[in-house]
Design brief:
Elements: H1 8-24, E1 50-54, H2 59-64, H3 71-83, E2 91-94, E3 101-104, E4 107-110, H4 115-132, E5 136-140, H5 142-149, H6 155-158, E6 170-174, H7 177-182, H8 186-206
Parallel strand pairs: 1-2, 1-5, 5-6
Antiparallel strand pairs: 3-4
Helix pairs in contact: 1-4, 3-8
């Protein structure tokens, strides 16, 4: 059951997302658009109670124009299913909307976005979250986590710990699915997948909790 009580509000959220998507498609706030095929905006229900935020689109996402449709998306799908979360019920996006890459022969290899590029894209991310109004935001990886929880965030130290922010009642960081793909050895990949799944289960449990008192102290940024 949707937390919104009228038809107008979901339609308003969808309209906001459609307008943001249209505006972002011509964004020139940083130079990444010059080498990307297209802007890759978020997708999912406009009234989703959970938003997942990754780092940036990859090669496959850049070609198809959709987030998390490549190998990392397959890992994310496995973790969501194991945690009991329907991917179709969550809104999925990235902190950066253009694919940053370096050539390796005929291949385009991911290159980590810098702070200038993350900041340039932040209005789009904040706009998406404001339009969806989720109860929980899950940041996948260090880039998304530091963008929303501050530069002091460390995945190995802080993953799975919910924080109240002005963007959503609960925001938590966890591993990016691509980290599982990069893990050395089957045992390491299994452990990383288990950690991601556990954090997604934590996020799911937060959907049943009341919003925390926003006047209480927050973790330092």
């Amino acid at each position: 059951m949707s937390r919104r009580s009228s038809v107008a509000l979901p339609l308003a959220g969808e309209a906001e997302l459609d307008e943001l998507r249209r505006m972002a498609s011509t964004c020139r706030a940083c130079a990444l658009w010059k080498r990307a095929t297209r802007t890759v905006f978020g997708e999912g229900p406009a009234d989703a109670r959970m938003v997942l935020v990754g780092e940036q689109p990859g090669d496959r996402e850049d070609m198809e124009g959709r987030p998390f449709v490549g190998p990392a998306g397959a890992i994310l799908g496995r973790a969501l299913a194991a945690a009991g979360i329907d991917r179709a019920a969550v809104y999925v996006t990235n902190a950066v909307k253009h694919f940053k890459w370096e050539p390796r022969g005929k291949r385009r290899l991911h290159s980590k976005p810098n702070n200038v590029e993350v900041v340039a894209c932040r209005p789009w991310l904040e706009g998406e979250i404001a339009a969806v109004r989720p109860h929980v935001v899950v940041c996948l990886g260090a880039t998304a986590s530091q963008a929303l929880l501050g530069p002091a965030f460390r995945v190995t130290r802080d993953r799975g710990k919910p924080v109240a922010t002005p963007l959503a009642p609960f925001v938590l960081g966890t591993l990016h699915p691509s980290a599982i793909l990069r893990a050395s050895g089957e045992a390491a990949r299994a452990r990383s997948l288990a950690d991601l799944t556990a954090d997604l289960r934590t996020a799911l449990s937060l959907l049943g909790r009341s919003a925390p008192d926003r006047t209480s102290p927050r973790s330092p940024r």
